[in-house]
Specification:
The complex is a heterodimer of chains A (about 375) and B (about 300).
Chain A (H helix, E strand, L loop, with lengths): L1 H19 L1 H21 L7 E7 L4 H12 L3 E6 L3 H10 L4 E5 L3 H6 L8 E6 L3 H8 L21 E6 L6 H32 L1 H5 L6 H30 L8 H25 L3 H17 L12 H8 L2 H15 L7 H21 L6
Parallel strand pairs in A: 1-2, 1-3, 4-5
Antiparallel strand pairs in A: 3-4
Chain B lengths: L3 E12 L2 E12 L3 E5 L6 H8 L7 E6 L2 E3 L3 H5 L2 E4 L11 H11 L4 H14 L15 H12 L6 E5 L7 H16 L3 E6 L2 H5 L3 E6 L2 E6 L1 H6 L3 E7 L3 H10 L3 E7 L2 E7 L5 H8 L8 E5 L3 H8 L5
Helix pairs in contact in B: 3-4
The chains are: A alpha/beta (about 375), B alpha/beta (about 300).
Chain lengths: ~375, ~300
């Protein structure tokens, strides 16, 4: 039975070490707990409250009935109103709304003559997220009860639907730009975090901090190589996406690179922050996973932001990946520019600046 | 004042309830080799880290090369060199690359770097290994590389934390030759060690124990001024005799060295040999007794609690 004693001695020692390493211990509990809670709620493909706009050219009592009926479905949440098609399209490009309902000038006539079999209105839909666009496509055949009384089952569609940006509803168009966000999150955070922690582990840092190098010089010097690595990854993903999966690259190269650089900067900053907290490479990796999982599941990469409950959306708003998924889809698929997506741009800039300051303060050049 | 490389008073550092360095006063003149001698855990490494600005003292003032720590720590960096106890260069870079990196960090002029590295590799006998990864070096070679890196910018003051704890005696002697060369060129060197032979080479020596300085002077003065006489006893059944001697009052310590016992007797007894023969409970008639010159180890035993 001696071998059992030896095994138990090892097991006991491991547990003891684990309990000393409070961060790892915390991660053992927190990773499943928090992630499960978050994603149990967040993964919800019954989408409600999609932000939508309205272009009501008829401005009649009929149009108001239709709008009320559409609102009553709770699938869309009409937040903006436009007066021209150009304004409506611009709003979709900017990402303010996912869809616009256009009600034509001759709406009352269309309602009066159901036999003509003409749709009452048209949905212009941003097709860059398939789950969102299918929810909107579901509205095409919705009955407008107050107007269609007595006509029985209408065979024809209530609304026409036009899908912008991804008319064939192909998944890669949606997935590839989002994948860029996930892959960059993973590599950028992990690389920087472990690169610095490795030097801590090997004792290199003790030497470095007696030299004249300043904290921010060390930080900056460390992350510059990874900026280049990030750009190479971007190039690989988008090139493959374009030529293999036929993903349209509608955006300007300069805008795509700028958006990616912003996100790389934010991710590297996060990696640096992790490295100032983690003492071992294992801890750094665990913290990376802790950020990575919500970045995959909450960022809108797999499941649309609209489908998440409020608390999950609030957490998603705090993740750089959420903002980048929005930006890169906007820039790559809808030819939006960074100024069109000011909110997301500003978030990434602010995140980087604040994170950099925190990391530099936290990484004091001493062993205290 | 201007003559001192290191001036510290009341230097104290605590880790929780444990006091690693306890009111340490130091005055280290420029150009000398100053040794910290002490057992493990005596506060040698912590003292060095306090003096290099790696740690902030809880109490006390430190003045290094005329600069106040920790306020002027950054200004000091370019003027000191530090060789860590553990090898801290990059194992996955070659010697050449390691030295290039350190040279650039210290902002050496670009033009001079190549010549400086070639010179250092030559001086520390590493030219043949210059393209080798640092991880593949032997213990002695790693030590020499670390010294080369720590002196690449010609520091005025060099800190060495147990530099030779991992190398054989021959490499240790070579290493000290290099230190004397540096000292000769005007570099002040502070070195910590737990080897007596190494401590004896220092110009000045501080004996540390549990964070306190027990004694400091030149090794010669320390040995001369020791408050005990050393008596060597040779004969048979030394283990039993040792127990008997320890019962004698004023016998401070008894240590066996091969076929001899080394006995420290309080200096108050002017004729330690006759005193010992009279006082020892066992008869010493069958033994040869002789008063011998104190060694640094005796000083160490006297200064620290090792005899208690």
């Amino acid at each position: 039975m001696k071998f059992l004693l030896r095994i138990s001695a090892i097991t006991f020692k491991e547990f003891r070490q684990l309990s000393r390493d409070r961060l790892t211990f915390g991660m053992v509990v927190m990773i499943p707990l928090i992630q499960l809670l978050l994603f149990g709620y967040a993964i919800n493909n019954n989408i409600r409250n999609i932000n939508a706009g309205l272009l009501d050219q008829s401005d009649s009592s009929t149009s108001r009935i239709i709008i009320d009926t559409v609102k009553a479905t709770q699938v869309v949440n009409i937040i903006e109103q436009y007066f021209s098609i150009a304004d409506a399209e611009a709003a979709i490009t900017k990402g303010n709304v996912r869809a616009v309902l256009v009600l034509p000038r001759d709406l009352p006539q269309r309602v009066a003559n159901p036999a003509d079999d003409r749709a009452l209105g048209q949905w212009i839909v941003d097709g860059s997220d398939n789950i969102v666009s299918s929810a909107l496509l579901g509205l095409a055949r919705m009955p407008i009860a107050p107007l269609q009384q007595g006509t029985g089952n209408t065979v024809s569609a209530t609304f026409d639907t036009v899908l912008y940006f991804n008319p064939e509803r192909r998944t890669p168009v949606n997935i590839v730009p989002g994948l860029l966000a996930v892959i960059l999150t993973m590599t950028m955070i992990l690389f920087t975090a472990t690169a610095i922690v490795r030097e801590k582990e090997r004792g290199n840092l003790e030497l470095l901090i007696t030299t004249p190098i300043r904290s921010f010089e060390l930080m900056l010097g460390k992350i510059i190589p990874y900026i280049l690595i990030g750009l190479v990854q971007m190039f690989i993903i988008l090139t493959l996406g374009h030529f293999v999966f036929d993903v349209p690259i509608n955006g300007q190269p300069l805008q795509i690179v700028s958006a990616t650089l912003l996100f790389i900067a934010a991710s590297l900053t996060l990696g640096l922050l992790i490295s100032t907290v983690a003492l071992t490479q294992l801890q750094a990796m665990q913290m990376t996973v802790f950020v990575l999982l919500p970045s995959i599941l909450l960022s809108g990469f797999l499941f649309p932001y609209e489908g998440m409950p409020k608390p999950a959306q609030m957490i998603a708003e705090g993740l750089p990946a959420t903002h980048f998924v929005r930006m890169i889809r906007g820039v790559v698929l809808r030819d939006a520019s960074l100024t069109d997506m000011q909110g997301d741009t500003l978030f990434l800039v602010a995140f980087t600046v604040v994170g950099m300051i925190l990391a530099t303060l936290k990484f004091r050049k001493s062993l205290d | 004042m201007t003559n001192a490389a290191i001036d510290a008073s009341g230097l104290t550092r605590r880790f929780g309830s444990y006091t690693a360095v306890d009111h340490l006063d130091l005055h280290i003149p420029r150009g000398c080799i100053y040794g910290f001698l002490g057992p493990n855990g005596s506060g040698k490494s912590t003292s060095i880290r306090l003096l290099t600005g790696l740690l902030t003292p809880d109490e006390g003032t430190v003045n290094i090369l005329g600069l106040q720590l920790p306020r002027q720590a950054e200004e000091l960096r370019g003027r000191i060199g530090y060789m860590t106890q553990k090898f801290s260069l990059f194992g996955d870079l070659t010697l050449q690359e390691n030295l290039q990196f350190i040279a650039r960090i210290y902002g050496l002029p670009r033009k001079g770097i190549k010549a400086r590295i070639a010179d250092l590799l030559e001086r520390y006998d590493l030219t043949r290994q210059s393209k080798q990864l640092a991880d593949t070096l032997s213990g002695g070679q790693k030590q020499r590389l670390a010294l080369a890196a720590a002196t690449i910018h010609n520091p005025e003051l060099l800190f060495l934390d147990e530099p030779t704890s991992a190398v054989d005696p021959e490499n240790r002697r070579d290493f000290w030759e290099k230190l004397f060369d540096l000292s000769d060129a005007g570099t002040t060197i502070l070195v910590s060690t737990h080897y007596m032979d190494e401590a004896e080479r220092c110009h000045y020596l501080a004996i540390l124990e549990t964070g306190r300085k027990r004694a400091d002077d030149t090794p010669q003065n320390l040995m001369q001024n020791m408050s005990a006489n050393v008596v060597e006893i040779s004969g048979n059944s030394l283990r039993r005799l040792k127990q008997q001697l320890l019962l004698t009052p004023d016998v401070i310590s008894v240590a066996q060295q091969g076929i001899r016992l080394r006995v420290l007797v309080d200096k108050g007894h002017t004729d330690p040999l006759s005193w010992l023969r009279a006082e020892c409970p066992a008869s010493l008639n069958d033994y040869q007794l002789a008063v011998v010159r104190p060694s640094l180890e005796d000083v160490f035993v006297m200064s620290t609690g090792a005899h208690r």
